[in-house]
Amino acid sequence: MPNPLFDTPAPGAGDPATDVELDLGDDRADIVSHDTYLRGVPHATFARLRRDDPVSWVDEPDGRGFWAVTRYHDVLAVSRRPEVFSSAQGIRLEDMTPEECEARRTIMEMDPPQHTAVRRLVSRPFTPRGVQQYEALVRSLTRDVLDAAEGSPAVEFVGAIARQIPLRLLGRLLGVPDADGEWLVERGDALIGNTDPEFTDFVVDRTDTDPYRLLPFRSPVALELFDYAEGLIGERRSCPGGDLMSALVAPMADGEVLTDLQLKNFFTLMVAAGNDTTRYSMAAGMAALAERPALWAALRADPDRVRRIPALVEEILRWSTVTMHFRRTAVADTELAGRRIRRGDKVVMWYVAANFDDAAFGSPYRFVPARDPNDHTTFGRHSAHLCLGAHLARLELRILLEELLERVEAFSVDGTPERLRSNFIAGIKRLPLALSWQRGGAAR
Ligand code: HEM
User: Fold this and answer.
1) 345: which of 48, 68, 81, 289 lies 20 to 30 Å off by Cα?
2) Which residue has its alpha carbon closest to ligand 1 atom 39?
3) How far is the CA of 177 from the centre of ligand 1 (A)?
4) Whole-model pTM above 0.90?
5) What's the confidence (pLDDT) of residue 442?
C-alpha cells in the first residue's frame, strides 16, 4: 500500500508536515573548539567551506594545523587512497609522537598490509551473516529495556534506553558478566568522551594528560580496561565460550593468532567505539522523529512498515553522523582539489560536512526517511577502515525502531536536550521525551 510520506518520489518534494527546518548554526564557527558543538553541528560553517574553500587550512591552538576536507567527493578521494593518506600516525586531530603512536596502535591506526591481516582476523563475527545470528539476542535485550521504561510518560531516552541496548549487547558479545556492563561503559565513556568534564576527570584540553600520553585517549582509564581485558583473555583461553572474545583468542584455520597486546587494544577499542556511537545515533534518530510526528503516525498506520525501516535507519545514520571526522596523514606530496598537500600534513575528512553536500544528496538539510540512494559517509565510505560494527549498529537501530513502533503511539521532546562537548563525536547525551504508550501494552 502506498504511503505518501515514505514513497517520496524525490528528495525535495516533501510534505509540509515533516519538512522541519534544520538549525544550520553559525557560519563562522571554530570547527576545532569542542565548545562549538555544545550548540550542535555548525552546518552553515561547513556549507561555507564546501562552497568557498573545500580543502581549507585550519590552524589549531594545540596542534600543527590540518587540511579540512568538506566536499563529499574529496572525502571519498582521501578515503580511497590509504597508500597516500595514511592512518598510522593517528586518526583524530591530536598530534602524536612516533612512540605514542606505537603504544596506542589499534586496528584503526594501521595501514595495509598490516591492517588487512589484522582485519581479516577480527572481521568474521561482524559480517552481515555473522551479525544475523545476534538478531534474537538484540530483540530480547531491546524488549527488556523497553519493558522497564514502558508506561512512564516522561523518559530520559539516552539514559533509560539508548545507552542500555549497546551496553548490554556489547557485554554479551564480549562475554562479560552483566554485572560488569555498567562499569565497562563508564570506562568507554571516559575514553571517547575525553573532552567532556561530565565523563572524565582527565579532560584533554583542560588538564595535564602528559603522564598518560602512551595510553589510548591519553587516559589512565585505559589501564583499567587493559587489566580487565587481560583477565578475560586468560579466562577465555582456558575456558572458551560462544562469545566474541572466545572467537578472537582461538587460532584461525591457518594457525594464526592475535597477540595479547592486539587483543587488549581490540577489547578497549570495542568498549570505546561500539557503545556510544550507536547510542548517539539512536538519540539523534529519536530527536529527528520527535520533531516530525507525522512520520511516526504514518509509520504506525502502515502495515508495510517493517519494510520501510532499513531506509529510515540509513537516513538516521546520515543525519546523525556521530563520528564527525576522521584524520589521515599524507605520506607523500600530493594534490587534492587543486591544493598542494605536503608529506606529513594532517588531512581531516569531515564526514559530517560530506553527508550534507548537495553534490551527493538532494535537499541535504531535509530528513527524507526513504532517501534513495543514500550513500552516506557515516561508516567511512570506500575506506579500508569501513566501520567493522556497521551491520551491528544497523541491526540495533532497526530493532529498536520496530519495537518502539509496536509500543509508542507518539512522542515529543520534553525539555532541553544536552550535547556532548566534543569536536569528534556528535552526541546528544540527554534527550527528555514525553511518550504516549499504547494502551494495554504492546501487541506481542
Ligand atoms: C552508528 C554507530 C557507529 C558509527 C557512526 C561508527 C563509525 C565508524 C567509522 C567512521 C569508522 C572508520 C574509521 C576510519 O575511517 O578511520 C569506524 C571504524 C570502526 N568501528 Fe565503528 N561506528 C559505529 C558503530 C560501531 C560498533 C557497534 C562497533 C563494534 C561493536 C564498531 C567498531 C569499529 C571498529 C573496530 C572500527 C575499526 C575498523 C578498522 O579500522 O578496520 N563501530 N566506525
Assistant:
1) 48
2) 385
3) 24
4) yes
5) 54
Contact 388 CB / ligand 1 (< 6 Å) = yes
Domain limits at 419? 34-437
* 22 part of a folded domain: no
Residue 146 lies in a domain: yes
The total of other beta-carbon atoms located within 10 Å of residue 42's CB is 24
CATH number, residue 222: 1.10.630.10
pLDDT under 70: residue ranges of the chain: 1-2, 5, 8-17, 252-253, 441-444
Residue 136 domain flag: yes
CA of 394 to the centre of ligand 1 (A): 12
Tell me the DSSP string of 60-93.
Answer: -TTS--EEEE-SHHHHHHHHT-TTTEESTT-SSS
CA of 13 to the centre of ligand 1 (A): 33
Please say whether the beta carbons of 398 and 137 come within 8 A.
no
Ligand 1: residue whose CA is nearest its atom 31? 389
Cα-trace Rg, the chain: 21
Render pLDDT for 137-158 as a digit per residue (tens, 0 to 9): 999 999 999 999 999 999 999 9
Question: Is ligand 1 within 6 A of the CB of residue 378?
Answer: yes
Q: Say if strands 432-437 and 408-413 run parallel, antiparallel, or are unpaired.
A: antiparallel
Number of domain units in the chain: 1
- Is the CB of 91 inside a 6 Å radius of any atom of ligand 1? yes
Q: Which atom of ligand 1 is nearest to the CA of 281?
A: 1
400 Cβ inside 6 Å of ligand 1: no
- Does ligand 1 come within 6 angstroms of the Cβ of 325? no
The secondary structure element, H or E, covering residue 57 is strand 55-58
Residue 443 lies in a domain: no
